[in-house]
Amino acid sequence: MSAPVGVGFIGVGVISDTYLENLNSFPDVEVLILGDLDVERAKAQAAKHGVPAAGTAQDVLDHPGVQVVVNLTIPAVHAEVSASAIAAGKHVWTEKPLGLDRESTSALLAQAEQAGLRVGCAPDTVLGPGVQTAKREIAKGTIGRPLFAQTSMQYQGPEVFHPNPGFLFAKGAGPLFDMGPYYLTTLVSLFGSVDKVAALGLKAREERAIKVGPNAGQTFPVEVPSTISVLTSFEAGQTGTSLLSFDSPLARQGIVEIHGTEGSLVVPDPNMFEGRIAYVRPFEALQEAPPAQEWIEVPQEGVVTGRGLGLLDMVRAIAEGRPHVASGELGYHVLDVMLSAEQSAATGEFVSVESSVSEVPAVPVDFDPLASTL
Questions:
Q1: pTM of the model
Q2: PANTHER family under this entry (predicted)?
């Protein structure tokens, strides 16, 4: 790798804006071309963000300067598009999830390994100063030995703001696959591999109605649980409980709490790159009603940017010969956990998670996305 590393996009939907804004601010990478099924949309995004070329997905794969492909296509074709990029000799950064089944995604990772190429997978929010500061506090022993985690993401569902929300209730989506990767990736980053899971799911309704936009009032089917509760057992001994719901009138998102022998730690919203980190200590003894617990605030350390941080870490890791944080291995394990939870919700049984992941590397405090390092 030599700077700047050439990057091409396949898929330029809504999320491409934040990727382009951030990647264009990183000196170590340069976006060279955007590709999409809708070439006119690719051209419009290229003009908006100052990218020199636009065209089809094949144009991106054929571009001689592109070393890394950013895959922002729909989840149903993530594995297929990523495999095409690997076949073209390009490293891949893909939006979550890595794929929708174990077979195609494990084949993708094997293909990349054989080709000597890297695969990175969102979410890369775990590289942000929020989660990384919390991870350092746990490693320092601030809350003693971690015992269990609680997470929650609940609100009444995306149909209240999204003009075309049907795909978020289709197979391969729902709150588990749409938002689960943020919470599960954070827990795996902190605790390590999941050993087994149990889950219970439900559908509030078999059909839902669009609330906003030109299609307001139209209904669509609900193919997957719209609420799911997941119990995770980690290889290192910790447990976790996670609620993911599109059915709750009470909105409560970004809840991640880690409870240990010497304290409880609040971790920032895993859908964000920064946030509050604080902890409480156990009471020594109580004579009367419990007093208010004192929150001890932890200063956040690191430079805050946004999506694209995982890709930057990957290209720097290639140059430095080290593992990258948001790896394909991590993305596959989180996918395996979600598929196992889906199976458990359908069968009512605990399901063993067959995959595991190496210890997820920490991000150094002095990691500066805005520096030129290559």
A1: 0.94
A2: BCDNA.GH03377 (PTHR43818)
